[in-house]
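Appendix C reproduces, verbatim, an entry submitted by the partner laboratory led by Prof. M.T., so that reviewers can inspect both the input and the predicted structure.
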Amino acid sequence: MKNRVLSELFEQMADALEFKGENRFKVNAYRKVSRVLGDLREDIEHVRKEGKLLEVPGIGKGTAEKIEEYLKTGRISKFKEVMDGVPPGIVDLLSIQGLGPKTLALAYKELGVKSVEDLVRVSKDKTLASLPGMGEKKLDNILRGIKLHAASKERISLGIALPIVEKIIDSLKKYNPTGRMSPAGSLRRMKETIGDIDILVESREGEEIIDRFTSLPDVQEVLAKGDTKGSIIVSEGLQVDIRAVPPESFGSALQYFTGSKEHNVHLREIAKKMGMKISEYGIFKGDKSIGGRAEEDIYEGLGLELMPPELREDSGEIEASGQGSLPRLLEENDIKGDLHVHSAYSDGFNTIEEVVLAGKRMGYSYLAICDHTKSAAYAGGLSEERLSKQMAEIDGLRKRISGIRILKGAEVDIKADGSLDLPDSILEKLDVVVAAIHSGFRKNVTERIVKAMRNPFVRIIAHPTGRLISKREGYDVDLERVLEEARKTGTALEINAYYDRLDLNDGNARRAKELGVKLAIGTDSHNTEQLWMMKLGVSVARRAWLEKSDVLNASSRLESRKRKSS
């Protein structure tokens, strides 16, 4: 969990330097380190003890020294130096959509804006609009950004919460190896953001398991400690609650605390009509318990099939269960390859060989190297010449590495007029062309995406709504029109598995399925530590009711290129 703390420290330093007007290369260097640490699954303290800090892609000598200092002393001296002269609330403001560092510096200097409260005040009384370059439209964008910022503070990203709860459960299993354990609530339903983290543990020795739980190494504060319940605060102020449940009611408790509320209310209505009652303690006919040890007891008692947790939102799953028509949801092991991975050729941290070998270890049949192209100069986008050099390197690796197919790809920018920033003469040489918008989020986005899909070489549209869950709403896009064009042209839309994107979201992905549009799940990994996020993309697909046949990269025989009529 120190990984996340260090990640946040480097991100704050990047924000502070950006506010001070430092050159973007230094700012981006800190941001890259923050991203590496945030995505690193191995405990950074263990990496340091093994003497392998410099082996982590993206960590150089200077960064390693700062990490060493923090792990030994609990602080980074450079942090204080960077933060000097930056009011505490300013860093928080830099994460608000629509509020760039130059605007913020001006608002601070001219209007005394030092906090979110200050920004809300000067936005609502329109004094912010008096600043140079600040029109009504930009002011509206900032007000929307303030709302999004507030909402993101109240929820925890799935990509942050899941590794934390998995680590806690792994630790507890050492002391309770035979007892069942599971996350519950919105985390078990794999929602993109969650509230507090809830864990259920099967145990008759509740006091002992709660004692172990509240004594874990990463506990920052113990909020409650009883015979069957405990509550702690871990890194980043996250609250984790645990409940010990006896074996005979573990299944019913897991069903009850998984939710959703709407799903459970619907089940209780069915039970009442059948003269039964369900609760966290079991399913009852009168005063007699007829089950509760397993979740299946609850559903079978009501004449229903067990529903995967991801579907339990009262969005038709109960009716489908009663009719025996639940979908056979996509499984993580159905995924045969990752169709959106970056390398050190653009803004990734690993060599192509390192990325491919990591994919091979995951059991993939293929993996597509899709680096940025020349319009994304900020990300080291590839020119035609550099892309040709990369393709030649892939040809050489194909001869040396067996057991996995390396696909030549590119994440090609969709320009302002809808054309692509590489010519067809280059695109036709690629196995996978992923087209994406990275700028001009309010400028004819729908028309640009539609035109890109009509290019015969474009296979996938990346992150189709452009949102970042914690930072921005996304493009001004008519998604229904995009979906219709995707159906006509046979273009797949991406479920981007990066935890702060998860784009398309589950609702839009389900609509794509209804229209017969294929989905492609890509991690958009910029280092090998991010490849695990395929799990998050699969969770979106499952919440969207997707089956194996709906997902492009669930096929083991992926065609190298799908030509379409333009």
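The chain has a mean pLDDT of 91. Additional entries are available on request from the coordinating office.
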